[in-house]
Specification:
- There is one protein chain.
- By secondary structure, this protein is an alpha/beta fold.
- The protein is built from 7 helices and 13 strands.
- Strand 6 and strand 7 form a beta hairpin.
- The chain binds adenosine-5'-triphosphate and magnesium ion.
- Adenosine-5'-triphosphate binds next to helix 1 and strand 12.
Length: 244
């Protein structure tokens, strides 16, 4: 049987935990508490994808400003401007408000009411993917989008439609999900084909970081919780073990 194409993540040590990388065209949820490294993981996935694996990427921000995201890339020494100039990276500002002349208002162009945000965003994403022939996508965060809805069915429907459209483009997508520890499992956890969890937990008088793969459809993956380091060069797994 032909082996599926594996998408290398650019996170040192992580690919060996998931049998070589993400499966191309799949949608993966990346979840964790505040400050656990979700945005960094997303930026690193796009940076190394574009630089080392010739896979351009799109970063959709719904929370931080594009400037903050650019500064984030640069704080790790990743030359984001070059990627943008070379059409290897697009940062889309999809925050649900806009600032004009010092005033903050609702962005009516994208958020016009229930059941529309996913459709609008999907169209915006698809045109950006096509423009630079992107193969990777990060949405930071999906939670902000889902907050627009009061009806769970509309979230599920919009999300499912978006995931089908992305898979149709063979785009490997990371959906950042802020929900953790809630009683209700967010819709994206069910719809995505993989879930990666970032932990940031207290140990005695310090905080430690770790990563865990909850599910990865069609892939053998490590079940352990692996310690990770978040330093000035980005995220790395400390003691990766090969999946037996
Ligand atoms: N350039 C850097 N060098 C070293 N560590 C950094 C650097 N930039 C960020 N960090 C660390 O990463 C943490 C934040 O990571 P990140 O923004 O990826 O988390 P997050 O899970 O996206 O958080 P949030 O829920 O607030 O969006 C910081 O609190 C800091 O500890
Ligand atoms: Mg973040």
């Amino acid at each position: 049987m032909e082996q599926p194409h594996k998408v290398r993540t650019g996170i040192p040590g992580f690919d060996s935990i998931i049998s070589g990388g993400f499966r191309q065209g799949r949608t993966i949820v990346l979840s964790g508490t505040p400050g656990s490294g979700k945005t960094t993981f997303g930026m690193q996935f796009l940076y190394y994808g574009a630089k080392d694996f010739d896979e351009p990427g799109v970063f959709v921000t719904l929370s931080q400003s594009p400037k903050e995201i650019r500064n984030g890339f640069e704080s790790f020494g990743w030359n984001v401007q070059k990627l943008i100039d070379d059409d290897k990276l697009i940062i889309i500002d999809a925050r649900p408000f806009k600032m004009e002349d010092g005033f903050i208002s609702l962005d009516e162009s994208l958020y016009r009411g229930e059941n529309l945000p996913f459709m609008h965003l999907t169209q915006l994403i698809l045109s950006s993917l096509k423009r630079i022939n992107a193969k990777r996508l990060v949405i930071d965060s999906l939670t902000v989008l889902a907050m627009q809805y009061t009806n769970y069915f509309y979230i599920r429907q919009g999300l499912q439609g978006m995931v089908y459209a992305l898979e149709d483009q063979h785009c490997t997508s990371l959906l950042i999900s802020e929900n953790i520890g809630d009683e209700k499992i967010p819709a994206e956890w069910h719809v995505a084909s993989g879930i990666v969890l970032l932990h940031h937990i207290r140990k005695e008088d310090t905080m430690e970081r770790a990563i865990q793969v909850i599910k990865m459809r069609g892939t053998r993956h490590g079940e352990q919780i692996f310690p990770i380091k978040l330093s000035e060069s980005g995220l790395q797994i400390m003691h990766p073990r090969l999946v037996p």
